[in-house]
Amino acid sequence: MEYSQAAVIQVAVCDDEEIFRAYIRKLLAEDGIRRGYDLQVSEYGDGRELLEAHEAGRRMDILFLDIRMREQDGLETARLLRERGCGCLLIFLTSMSEYMQKGYEVRAFRFLLKEQAAEELPRVMQDCRRELSAEGYFSFTSEHRSYLLPKTDILYFESCKRLILLHTAREVFRFYGKLDDLEAELSAEGFLRCHRSFLVREDRVRRWQDRELTLTNDERLPVSRSYEREVNRRLMLRMG
Question: I need a labelling partner for 34 at 20 to 30 A (CA). Which of 15, 41, 195, 237 fits?
């Protein structure tokens, strides 16, 4: 089985100085290599281009946004993005600390002073990755690589001795761990223990009968007697 990097982090950089955009891209690439995560960087020269990309469905997990731009400034661009439902982690690029108070009005996650970008960007990205993991991503390490996988991509976890097999619709990832620990971590987020060897995402269950779950991809998982009552209760609540 071959493994590929899960959930490439989508990063957008919006700054009207092409040289600085290239500089941030270089720092991001170096940090990704150093810390073992994958990212894809898209660049925008002004707020209008950025808004158009968002309207076209471009995913942005993290946005580095210059506050002072010649056309539409970063604060106004951020307000419009938030009004249009963009929930990305917003990092304002600035050379002046006076904007920080206004930045909180548009839920800025961090501020990055341009003159300190080389020193501070690794810390900012570490905070971003931790936040993404806490909100909607599952993080794990396999073969000395760090992974971030959207929880909505997960079908189920399978315990195989000391290994955990994480199943998605397209591939399987392996890492060391205990299913009991995963159950404690993810039970409140829609994951259901159906067997001593399986922890399944509830909304991936299409039907259940005769102590067996059928998933949305037609895979079948067993339900053991010790978990049968809780499985029935949780799934009946979900199905109304």
Answer: 15
